[in-house]
Protein 1
Amino acid sequence: MPVIRFVREGLDVECYPGENLREVALREGIALYGLKGQLGNCGGCGQCITCFVDVVGESSPGSLSGRTAVEEQKLRRRPQSWRLACQTLVQQSVLVLTRPQVGFGDADQRIAAAKSQPLPAGPTSWPEPPAEEQDEDSETTTSDEEV
Ligand code: FES
């Protein structure tokens, strides 16, 4: 599975190939939005331009979905490595800096440290379903056979 390394938060998060970056970040409790986005965002429609992320480091081609037409328009004055999280699907492992417009003291050191740790290329494998679900299925089968 791809790993998203959130540099600012110092957190590695696994996701399914093709998952939406915004949805993964919100699910993991990552502070994706600055104040403006916290007060009001478009919910992932690509209209509010508050879910900026910077894809730091060299990611292999195809690690993320290509820029959408919305991003091409909304990010035309931003660095090429910036993306809108809500418009981005993760295919392979990447390093991401949330809220790149907000600086923090040791950003360069943290980015360098994040780059120095290898990431799995991903996708590697799909997770096995929890054992409990397998047991429920087998019980259902057993009770069906009894009837
Ligand atoms: S959530 Fe509004 S542009 Fe991404």
Note: The chain has five helices and seven strands.
Protein 2
Amino acid sequence: MERSLEINDNVRIRPLSKEDIPSILEIDGKITAASRSSLDREKINYYLRNPNLCWGAEASGCLIGFMLGDIRGWEFGLSEAGWIEILGVDPSRQRKGVGRALLTAMIDEFKNRGVKTVRVVARWYDPILSFFRAEGFEHGELLSVQKDL
Ligand SMILES: CC(C)(COP(=O)(O)OP(=O)(O)OC[C@H]1O[C@@H](n2cnc3c(N)ncnc32)[C@H](O)[C@@H]1OP(=O)(O)O)[C@@H](O)C(=O)NCCC(=O)NCCS
């Protein structure tokens, strides 16, 4: 299903395909330049198995943002949910509504598939959480504990 979303300058939201993998890795590389990315071709391919749960934002024929999602059944004792796994907007295009447009497409698709809850896991200090809070996400039921050995 093709959807178009007009943001400032003709940004189009569309499903991602395998041809987008190099651009996804390029955006991820720009975002995580100072840290180590856990994203690779194999991982992206895994998420791409779900048509319409992987959305891209395109401007002038170039990918400028992506969001990879999944729907998973019972885990951690929790019911089935939509998961937003990995997302990124090109640093030069951030804070212009691209992330919000990707999220809208993803949530529409989750709703179409009968999903009642959307979950995101991130480090508690990750700036990405400010984005999700701004979009109405609240603290979920999960809390991780750990011990260094
Ligand atoms: C988080 C991210 C996906 C959001 O996409 P975006 O296109 O920049 O976000 P939007 O413009 O749609 O923002 C929607 C709202 O979210 C909030 N928001 C987005 N990014 C934010 C940030 N970095 N800090 C605080 N609030 C933020 C704002 O309220 C914003 O609305 P506003 O600009 O009207 O105030 C994108 O900025 C990104 O990829 N950031 C990089 C994340 C990162 O550095 N990760 C490193 C470890 S992997």
Note: The pocket of coenzyme A is lined by residues 31-32, 87-89, 94-100, 126-128, 130-131, 134 (CB under 6 Å).
